[in-house]
Amino acid sequence: MRAVYLTVKYITIVGTFLQGFFEHLSCRMYDVLIEHELIKKRGTAFGVCFFPFLFNLLIGLILTAAGSVNIFYLGEFFMSADSKVPNFPNFLFLWVGISCLTNLFPQIEDALTLKEQIYGKGKSNLFVKIIAAPIFAVLYVGSYLQSVGLTLVTSVVFSLFMPSILGTFIPQLYNAIAG
After folding, report:
1. What are the φ/ψ torsions at residue 6 (nearest 5 degrees)?
2. At residue 78, what are phi and psi to the nearest 5 degrees?
3. Cβ count near 68 (within 10 Å)
């Protein structure tokens, strides 16, 4: 499994670097000296796990939308109808978007630290545990899927369906705003 994990990390090198950059920024923001040290505060553990996820998600959604709509929906594979030169910007947007979506989740150790900080004995009240449950579930399951390399498959499948998803919701949003 380690070979699959490393292969996926090399294929999605841009998302890997962005995830590392956002983790480093989060650690600096919360005064964590070493990225994977034991975090003692609940808010710090949440921030170190959630904010890199959020930033990679936003970048990944924007770039995947730019690439997948042009390639899969509009069919802009080539620069013009006459030439056979591939439309490199669209493929680049798609690859970087998939790369960011593949590297969304924290390491399993960070997700388990977050679990211990929120759900440990006497750590949080019931309201915080209920509110944090869906976020923790997504982060934990995603970190496990990322450790076995399955997030690449889910990101590619999502990019294939993204034009249909956008085509379903954007006209309704436009009609609601335009009134």
Report:
1. -65, -35
2. -120, 160
3. 26
Q: How far apart are CA 13 and CA 85, in angstroms?
A: 25
| CB distance 76 to 87 below 8 Å | yes
Sequential pLDDT tens for the chain (179 residues): 789 999 999 999 999 999 999 999 998 898 887 766 677 788 888 888 899 999 999 999 999 999 998 888 888 777 766 777 788 889 999 999 999 999 999 989 888 888 888 888 776 788 888 998 999 999 999 999 999 999 999 999 999 999 888 888 888 767 777 76
CA dist list (Å): 32 to 40, 41, 82: 10, 10, 55
Give the number of other Cβ atoms within 10 Å of residue 26's Cβ.
22
Instruction: Give φ, ψ of 86 to 5 degrees.
Output: -60, 150
